[in-house]
Amino acid sequence: MVENEIKESLDLNLSNLWNYGEWLSRNTLNANIGNYFLDEFNNYFLSVIKYTKLDYLKLLKCQIDIIKQRSQIEKNFWENERSVIQAYSKEEAINALLRVTKIDEKISRIEQFVNGLSYD
Q1: C-alpha span between 106 and 100 (Å, rounded)
Q2: Where is pLDDT greater, at 88 or 96?
Q3: Secondary structure (3-state) at 38
Q4: pLDDT digits (tens, 9 = 90+) for 23-79
Q5: DSSP one-letter code for 44
Q6: pLDDT confidence of residue 105
Q7: Average pLDDT in the 73-100 region?
Q8: Are 72 and 107 a contacting pair, CB within 8 Å?
Q9: How much is the average pLDDT of 2-29?
Q10: Cα separations (Å) of 116 from 34, 43, 67, 105, 120?
């Protein structure tokens, strides 16, 4: 919102966003709330900030691209760290063994997160 200069004004009352839960509870059967909370919130959010779904998808794609770029930097760091550890002597390698395992897990979590991103 900051990047796109969306500010509260006479035409835009951002308190409506904070009261979304109240609005949703009045307009949704409680049993079905989990099935479409995000879709309903996205539509509500767009109506409050007066954006189209296309505007929203463009912004979301941009944010996903930024996350993917940052994740590659992070993965490169951890892959380099793994290479450094693999060059250790036997004693250094034993001391670093737990760290290597955690590094592989971190790379995997980054990949899982990025692979789960979608803007459609």
Answers
A1: 10
A2: 88
A3: helix
A4: 667 766 665 555 555 677 788 888 888 888 898 889 889 999 999 999 999 999 999
A5: H
A6: 84
A7: 86
A8: no
A9: 70
A10: 19, 21, 12, 16, 12
Residue whose pair of structure tokens reads 């897990």 in the numeric block: 105
101 HSE (CA, 13 A, CB side): 5
State the virtual CA torsion across 81, 65, 116, 2 in degrees, nearest 10: 110
Give CA–CA dist 83/89, Å, rounded.
13
In which residue are the tokens 């006479």 written?
10
* DSSP string over 77-89: HHHHHHHHHHTS-
- pLDDT recorded at residue 71: 94
> How far apart, in whole angstroms, are the C-alpha atoms of residue 75 and residue 112?
12
Q: Structure tokens of 67? A: 């996350």
Structure tokens belonging to residue 39: 């879709």
d(CA 63, CA 49): 18
Q: Are 14 and 8 in contact (CB under 8 A)?
A: yes
**Other C-beta atoms lying within 10 Å of the C-beta of residue 107:** 19
